[in-house]
């Protein structure tokens, strides 16, 4: 059973605040182990990768090779279910179309003073994508990370993925190939992150590393940050469904459980203005749990972190929605557009009764890599912008320099930076 | 004397690689101290701020007050030099005009399948800006951080600045006021970052913290990251000047020294195709050093990290320029536009002989907060984008859901996520 909070109760603010700050994940302290792994990969290169892979992934890279070959990819296509390959292509095309609209435009202009200014966007030259092994090895995540990089114009897109006991999910290889990934290596863990950041004999270094991973991978990304760029560190996933009583409780329960089945630390929250409806959804959750293959995970998540929040009117939930700042927000009621217009914080919003969040996980076209754990207050989902960077441009002639010089010199002197003042003044014989 | 590297020498690649990886800053290990400070501010709030400020800044907030008052700001206007105030206004207006062009546009559209997709940008609700004390207390940096936040639409812009021995640079207060900052507090160091992230009785928490600071401030920002967003961690500053022999050696030397006077770990690099010109610039540097107030700092920077790189033709420097990925790049030769068109990595580019980098520090209009230490390979300077975040939007009707459902269900099943498949199927009675 999830907890129930009533906005009109006297202790609501206190209980809601406590709910918001509940930690859903304990991060293991793996800093020191990771530091050693990175140092050894820097010192020994491929040899360290082979050793660590034998130890952690029980795979012999001496026999398999560090790099995945074209043959391996061809075999993956033969192994994979053809209908699933078609579904991946369908998803790839939709993701590509949507992300093409995100490409930022260069801007170059001359202002009233005759000064030329500009912003020029260029793709990052090489990007590494970490793909987890085992059950968390999601081909959809390969598309969600690699397609925006490709759209951005990244030349080298490199995947690292652990081959646990020698095996890589063939759908991961197919998704990588469909997305236009250039290189794939059979390494995982902190050692893979170290190889991407610092390079080895086989793996050329990249400029930025993205993609989800376990505590070791997250710690390694933090440690190499600066040498390379990294994406946000993903936390446990969450959904917030705001629904009125006109919804089918079974539909809403299914959406809450789709989130809960991800992980015991996932979080599903229902906000409704109708206590009866809230009860009906809770009952539907219990019923559906009985037939779910991943019921154990989903039940634990719902029990430990799930919540039903009762509000006097959906309108009253607006400040709560912004404070929760959920990764996924479903607005399942009629006037959702007006509500959305007044919302501030959410990773992604799914509007209406026929837009289950799961569509966004796979084939909506928008990205499923989204800010978790309230970070939608200050950050955005993955996009083409994560694979480009901006150079600013300034161009003055002698007339413009003369015009801007007095203020520049005044400010440089006020800040005690005489060489700054001089580099302007010297050009004007001042 | 800076080092000289010749691209045509046999050992160039080796020496250039070593030069690129030279560490210019040793970061002190202050993690544990900072952890304690943050814990105490969380536990004791304002009281901890008062205690730490007495200890570290020798200022009595019991008497002065934590918050800077309107009276304090009015006094700052009276104290400051009127010409400098005018220069700040001039800079503020130019920065504002340029950054207004950076506001991202919402995108909402219906694709061929009838699916509605969108990206909606909203301002971060509250942002904290750290301003260092003492000699590094630059009013220009207040404008460069606060103006883009204001343009983005951030409602609460909060400055923290240490009042060393009770004193805050009046120009910092004037710049904050001109930029539209909402609140200013007399606290600095890790304790100020902790207060911004977690809040105290006097200081309401913010959602993101930006601005430069010392090792304690940088460590505190890293530690509160996740609770709040942070900007990049700024490293030592650098300039790369690419110049032919048609330049006045004194002008170029002045530009190299403007960078070098910032800090002993700043870096100034000249690339030229003319060895005689390189020598002339080096001689000009030595001459100018004799009259500079900050000669000691500038000389140390030039001696320890400065470089003159000789290339057979400026064209040949293109790959070197991209590998250096400098914060500031001056292109002081005739065909700079074509060169720029083929460059990939730079924080900001200054074109032609009349655009000294210093113009960009103050009054060009572009931002002076730029990626340092080769991070222009993967990141961009500060902009309006740092103060907004994007929510993605998806909206399907029953027809669109029917169309997308088969691929979504196939992928969910392939990933072993049955509750995902079910949340789509249940809406179609599948």
TrEMBL record, chains A, B:
Q: What class of enzyme is it?
A: oxidoreductase
Q: Which residues bind NAD(+)?
A: 130, 191, 214
| InterPro entries found in the cross-reference section | Ald_DH/histidinol_DH, Histidinol_DH_CS, Histidinol_DH_monofunct, Hstdl_DH
Among the GO biological process terms of this entry, one is: L-histidine biosynthetic process
Keyword Nucleotide-binding attributed? no
UniProt binding sites for substrate: 237, 259, 262, 328, 361, 415, 420
Q: Give one Pfam family, short name only.
A: Histidinol_dh
EC number in record: 1.1.1.23
Give TM segment ranges: none
Keywords of this entry: Amino-acid biosynthesis, Histidine biosynthesis, Metal-binding, NAD, Oxidoreductase, Zinc
Q: What does this protein do?
A: Catalyzes the sequential NAD-dependent oxidations of L-histidinol to L-histidinaldehyde and then to L-histidine.
Q: What is this protein called?
A: Histidinol dehydrogenase
Q: Which organism is it from?
A: Mesorhizobium hawassense
| Name of the encoding gene | hisD
């Amino acid at each position: 059973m999830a907890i129930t909070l009533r906005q009109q109760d006297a202790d609501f603010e206190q209980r809601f605040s406590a709910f918001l700050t509940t930690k859903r994940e304990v991060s293991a302290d793996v800093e020191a182990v990771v530091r050693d792994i990175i140092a050894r990969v820097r010192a020994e290169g491929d040899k360290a990768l082979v050793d660590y892979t034998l130890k952690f992934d029980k795979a012999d890279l001496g026999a398999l090779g560090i790099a995945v070959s074209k043959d391996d990819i061809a075999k993956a296509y033969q192994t994979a279910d053809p209908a699933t390959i078609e579904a991946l292509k369908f998803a790839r095309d939709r993701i590509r179309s949507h992300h093409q609209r995100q490409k930022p435009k260069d801007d170059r202009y001359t202002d009233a003073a005759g000064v030329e200014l500009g912003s020029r966007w260029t793709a990052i030259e090489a990007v590494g994508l970490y793909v987890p092994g085992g059950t968390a090895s999601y081909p959809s995540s390969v598309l969600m990370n690699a397609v925006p990089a490709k759209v951005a114009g990244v030349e080298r897109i490199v995947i690292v993925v652990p081959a646990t006991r020698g095996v890589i999910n063939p759908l991961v290889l197919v998704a990588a190939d469909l997305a236009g990934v250039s290189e794939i290596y059979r390494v995982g863990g902190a050692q893979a992150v170290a190889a991407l950041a610092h390079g080895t004999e086989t793996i050329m270094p990249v400029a930025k590393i993205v993609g989800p991973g376990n505590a070791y991978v997250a710690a390694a990304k933090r440690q190499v940050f600066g040498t390379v760029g990294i994406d946000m560190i993903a936390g446990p996933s969450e959904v917030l469904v705001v629904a009125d009583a006109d919804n089918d409780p079974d539909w809403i329960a299914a959406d809450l459980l789709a989130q809960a089945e991800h992980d015991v630390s996932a979080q599903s929250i229902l906000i409704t203005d109708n206590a009866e409806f809230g009860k009906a959804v809770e009952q539907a959750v219990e019923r559906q749990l009985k037939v779910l293959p991943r019921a154990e995970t989903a039940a634990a998540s719902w029990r430990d972190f799930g919540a039903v929040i009762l509000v006097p009117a959906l309108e009253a939930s607006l400040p709560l929605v912004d404070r929760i700042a959920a990764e996924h927000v479903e607005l399942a009621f009629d006037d959702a557009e007006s509500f959305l217009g007044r919302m501030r914080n959410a990773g992604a919003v799914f509007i209406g009764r026929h837009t289950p969040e799961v569509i966004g996980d796979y084939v909506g076209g928008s990205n499923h890599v989204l800010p978790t754990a309230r970070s939608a207050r200050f950050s955005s989902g993955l996009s083409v912008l994560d694979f480009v960077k901006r150079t600013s441009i300034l161009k003055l002639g002698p007339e413009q320099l003369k015009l801007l010089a007095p203020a520049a010199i005044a400010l440089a002197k006020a800040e005690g930076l005489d060489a700054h003042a001089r580099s302007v003044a010297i050009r004007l014989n001042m």
